[in-house]
Write a structure and sequence with these properties.
287 residues, alpha/beta, 6-stranded mixed beta sheet, 6-stranded parallel beta sheet, 10 helices, 37% helix, globular
C-alpha cells in the first residue's frame, strides 16, 4: 500500500506486544479490501494507559486493540462502553467516537465465531471450563448467555470459581455455572463434554504443562478448545487427542476477534473468503 496524507492508523496497546499477530490480520484485510489503513503495535509502559488513550485521540487514531495487562484498566479512560464489555469487565477494542473512544469486547464473539466455524455448538450443551481468571470469566458469561445447559467451572482455587459463578449466574439470571475444584473432576456426570481451556497454563516457555494431567479427565472430553494459539499444539490439546477427542487451538478466536474489530472501525462486513485468506497468512507463522 501507499501511505499518504489520508492513511488512517489503528494499532494495539499492551505490554508486551512484540509477539502479536494482529498486524497480520488488519494489514492483510486492508490490502484485500482496498482500505487506506495501517495497523501497528504500540508497547505501553505500566501506568501509562490513560496517557496512551488520550494520545491516540489527539493523534486521531481510528481505533485500538487492547491486550494484556490492560483490558480492565483501560475502561477508566473511555468515553463510552458497550454493555457486553461492561458485563464482562474487559475491553479489547476501542472505536473512535466524538470526544474519545467507545470500548467493546470482541474476544467473546470472536470465540463464538471460531467455535461455529468448527461446527462446535454451545446452546444446550454441558461444558467444562478450566480456569477462573479474566479470560475464563468472559467465556463463562459467553456460554451462559448463548444457552449452555450447564458449565462446570473447574479452578485450582474453589473460592475464586465460586465468585465467578455467582457473578455470571446473577448477570444472566439463571444457575448455569457450577463451581468446582480442579481435583473434583471425578464428580462430573458420566458423559463426554466440550472442554474449553481458559488458563495460561501451556503458554511458552511452559509448553509441556497442562492444568490437569490425568488421562481419566481427558476421557471425559469429546472436543477440547484451548484459548492459547502458540504453541500450535498445547499439551492440553495433545492429551485430548490421545484420549480419543478432537482438539483446536485459539488461532481462529484471535482471527475473528480481530475481524470484528476491523468491522467496527471501518463499518464493513468481512467476507468468509477474506477471513480464511487472513487465517492462512496467520497459520504460516507456525509452519
Amino acid at each position: 500500500m501507499t501511505i499518504d496524507g489520508k492513511t488512517r492508523t489503528c494499532g494495539l496497546i499492551g505490554n508486551p506486544v512484540e509477539h502479536t499477530l494482529s498486524p497480520v490480520i488488519h494489514n492483510t484485510l486492508a490490502a484485500r479490501m482496498g482500505h487506506n489503513l495501517v495497523y501497528v503495535p504500540f508497547p505501553v509502559a505500566e501506568g501509562k494507559v490513560a496517557d496512551a488513550v488520550k494520545g491516540a485521540a489527539a493523534l486521531n487514531l481510528l481505533g485500538l486493540n487492547v491486550t494484556v495487562p490492560y483490558k480492565s484498566e483501560v475502561i477508566g479512560s473511555l468515553q463510552d462502553i458497550d454493555p457486553l464489555a461492561a458485563h464482562i469487565g474487559a475491553v479489547n477494542t476501542l472505536v473512535r467516537t466524538e470526544g474519545g473512544y467507545k470500548g467493546y469486547n470482541t474476544d467473546m464473539e470472536g470465540l463464538y465465531r471460531a467455535l461455529e466455524s468448527e461446527g462446535i455448538r454451545i446452546g444446550g450443551e454441558e461444558i467444562i471450563l478450566l480456569g477462573a481468571g479474566g479470560a475464563a470469566r468472559a467465556v463463562a458469561y459467553l456460554c451462559a448467555s448463548k444457552g449452555a445447559e450447564r458449565v462446570y467451572l473447574l479452578n485450582r482455587t474453589l473460592e475464586k470459581a465460586q465468585t465467578v459463578a455467582s457473578e455470571v449466574n446473577q448477570a444472566v439470571g439463571a444457575e448455569v455455572i457450577v463451581p468446582m475444584a480442579l481435583g473434583d473432576y471425578g464428580r462430573l456426570p458420566e458423559r463426554r463434554f466440550l472442554a474449553i481451556q481458559g488458563t495460561s497454563v501451556g503458554l511458552f516457555p511452559h509448553v509441556e504443562e497442562a492444568v490437569i494431567e490425568e488421562k481419566e479427565f481427558y476421557q471425559k472430553i469429546h472436543t477440547g478448545f484451548d484459548l492459547i494459539y502458540s504453541p500450535w499444539e498445547t499439551r492440553f490439546m495433545r492429551l485430548v487427542r490421545e484420549n480419543g477427542g478432537t482438539a483446536y487451538n485459539g488461532l481462529k478466536m484471535l482471527l475473528y476477534q480481530g475481524i470484528i474489530a476491523y468491522e467496527l472501525w471501518n463499518n464493513v462486513k468481512v467476507s468468509e473468503e477474506d477471513a480464511m485468506a487472513v487465517y492462512e497468512q496467520m497459520r504460516a507463522y507456525f509452519q
